Structures are given as C-alpha cells and as structure tokens.
UniProtKB/TrEMBL annotation:
Entry protein name: Olfactory receptor 2H1-like
Name of the gene this protein is made from: LOC110141621
Pfam families, sorted: 7tm_4
Domain of life: Eukaryota
Function description: Putative odorant or sperm cell receptor.
Gene3D superfamilies xrefs: Rhodopsin 7-helix transmembrane proteins (1.20.1070.10)
UniProt source species: Odocoileus virginianus (White-tailed deer)
Membrane topology according to the record: Multi-pass membrane protein
Domain G-protein coupled receptors family 1 profile: 45-294
Example of a GO cellular component annotation carried by this entry: plasma membrane
Length: 323
C-alpha cells in the first residue's frame, strides 16, 4: 500500500481504491466464485421468502410481513455492494468512483440502520403476540404494521442523510486506498490523516443510537417474553414460541455482533486487522443465513414451501401428460 504523503478534502479524480485481498490474487479468484454462488443463493432464498409471504394466505400475518421486508432489505444491501465487489475481485482494477463510493456508503447506512430498527419492530411483534395474545390483532393491524415499516425506513434515511456528508468531510490521506471490500464508515475513518476526534465522536454517538438503544429495546422485549413463557401451560405452545423467538434472536446477535466489532471503535486493533473479513461476512454470509434461519426453524414456512414445491411438480407432470 502506498504511504500517505499528506491529506486532502478534495474530490479525488479517480475516487477510491478498494484493496480487499489484492495482495493474494489466487485467493481473490477463489472468493470471486464463492461470492457468485452466495449471491445467487441470497437472491433465490430472499425472493422465495418474499413470494411465499405474499402468495400464501397462511402467511398473511404481521410476523411474515416484517420478515418479507427484512428479506427485501437483504436484497437491497447485497445488490448495492456485491456487483462492485465482484468487479474488483475479477480483475486488476480495484477502483470505485468518488460518486460511486458516496452512493454505496449512503445505501449501506440507510439499509443497515433500517435493518436494525426492523429487528426492534420484529421483537415488539413477538412481545405483543406472546405477552398480549388477546389484543394482538387489535394492536398489530395492517395500517400500524405499515407505519412501523415506514418508520424503519425513515430512520435509515435519516441516518444516511446525516452521516454520509460527515464521512466525506474527513481529512483523507492522499493515497485514498481503502483496506476493505466496500465503502463504509470504519474504513473511511482508517483512511484519515490528522485529527478526526470531533467527527469520530459524532459517528460513535450515531452508532450507539443505532446499536445500544435497539439492542436494549430488544432485550427488554425478550425479558417480558421470557416471563410470559414461564407461565404458558401448553408445552407445544411454549416450544413454538421459543422456536420463533430463538430464530429472531439468532439474527439479532449476528447483525449487531458484526456491527459492534467494526463500528464501535474503527481504529482498534481488531477492526483494523479483521475488519474486511467481518465486512465480507455481513455482506455475503449474513443475508443468506437470515432466510435459512427463519425457514429451517419455522414449521409454517417449511410446510408452505413444501406444499408449493409439490404443487409445482404436479403441474409439470400434468403438462407432460397433456403434451
């Protein structure tokens, strides 16, 4: 990597260089094919969740409405980041334009913050379903669910609009090489030369608002849920509630765990050394695991999926018999 010769706030004529694992060309080629496979699976699995949620009346519930929105967010995130990642992994050109980096960062912040708030919404949905089942349909009516989704997107938009301009006011080093696969706040902070304490404080406060506060609300919801589960007499009902909640909690810990490792202190030794691996994980692994976790641990989704597959196979057989 070239050494920094100074700092600049000017718009770079060629933008930024996303180094990734450019020092290991053979590893990059292997990663290219791995990402191709994972990207395909991400699209197929999340589109399947969305289609099942909207096509089958059995899944016309708030939980699956929120789950389909989470799948849509995963699609938005991967489609924003992965094409550029594949382009950089395939050949020697590792560059991304300045405007491209701004757009990518803005989308990453918007979608990431929206996902965080959506996970809080899903925890609230589970709280109402388990702790106040008799009032569930009254509280979680369709209009209210849409308002919660819109609130999630608005939170993400506010985060993006406020943090993106701040990030690009940092005094970047002249070499403008990002040791990462994508444009994101921690890698931009590590690119800076000079005192960035005021800006870092603003970004840290924002990160805390979108990590500590949501996690606190989620854990509070599950505290009440745990108390209610202890009072449920039906073993089947308890196991069903535990299965649904454990799926959600797994996704919560994966999402906030990776965010905390990279965003809490971008310049610490772990983030500097392993940040791009964590970026790779939450870019192409987490969006695939989310639908798998919800489908593999959810009997309703599995039964609907199996029924749709059997229906598709029977239609094909009938067509063959006709022709």
């Amino acid at each position: 990597m070239p050494k920094a010769t100074g700092s600049t706030n000017e718009s770079f004529p060629v933008g930024f260089v996303l180094l990734g694992y450019s020092e290991f060309p053979q590893l990059e080629m292997l990663l290219f094919w791995i990402v191709i496979f994972l990207y395909t699976m991400i699209i197929l699995s999340n589109v399947t969740i969305i289609l099942l949620s909207y096509m089958n009346p059995q899944l016309y519930t708030p939980m699956y409405f929120f789950l389909s929105n989470l799948s849509f967010l995963d699609l938005c995130f991967t489609m924003t980041v992965v094409p550029q990642m594949l382009f950089n992994l395939w050949g020697p050109d590792k560059s991304i334009t300045y405007s491209g980096c701004i757009i990518q960062l803005g989308m990453v912040l918007c979608v990431g913050a929206t996902q965080g708030v959506m996970l809080v919404v899903m925890a609230f949905d589970r709280y109402v379903a388990i702790c106040q089942p008799l009032r569930y349909t009254i509280i979680m009516h369709p209009q209210f669910c849409w308002k919660l989704v819109l609130m999630s997107w608005l939170s993400g938009l506010i985060e993006s609009v406020t943090q993106t301009p701040i990030a690009f006011q940092l005094p970047f080093c002249a070499h403008h090489c990002l040791d990462d696969f994508l444009c994101q706040v921690p890698s931009l902070i590590r690119l800076t030369c000079g005192d960035t304490s005021p800006t870092e404080w603003q970004m840290t406060i924002s990160a805390l608002l979108f990590t500590i506060l949501p996690v606190g609300l989620i854990l509070t919801s599950y505290g009440y849920i745990a108390q209610t589960l202890g009072k449920i007499q039906s073993e089947e009902g308890r196991q069903k509630a535990i299965a649904t909640c454990s799926s959600h909690l797994t996704v919560v810990f994966m999402f906030y765990g990776t965010v905390a490792m990279v965003y809490t202190d971008p310049k610490n030794q772990f983030a500097s050394k392993h940040g791009k691996f964590v970026s790779f994980f939450f870019t192409v692994v987490t969006p695939l695991l989310n639908p798998l976790i919800y489908t593999l641990r959810n009997k309703e989704v599995k039964s609907v999926l199996q029924r749709q597959l059997r229906k598709g196979i029977s239609i094909r057989k009938n067509k063959k018999l006709i022709f």
